Amino acid sequence: MIIRKMTFEDVKTVAQIEKECFSLPWSEASFEDSLAREDTVFLVCEDLDVVGYIGMYLSFEEGEITNVAVTPSYRQRGCGNLLIQAIKEEAKARAAESVILEVRVSNVPAISLYKKHGFEEIGIRKNFYEHPSEDAIIMKVGI
Asked: How many angstroms separate the CA atoms of 67 and 47, rounded?
């Protein structure tokens, strides 16, 4: 598996993975709009085809992970680990001092992955998610 920057050619596949993984998925247009911005980084995990991705907005000294997804058939194979490590490296290269994210309180596998990479729980956002309604844990890691 390799990690590389997402291109516009990846958007259709990434949007399909998004639909497989989330109840309110981003559209292809949302990914295209984000890719066109200077303050965003999107990376993909590729193993013959794109099997996962991660996105981050950068603002001053902080990166905010917007979405992370791995197609269900590729979970537990290391793609998520590679994506988290790569986005932290990208944040550091762009002078970020920390990275923050939100995760559903019920998403135990993701919470475990983030903790493995040094993220700590710093708060709760009540009713942050819809379909179903659920709180989000706010997590942060220093770079």
From this structure: 20
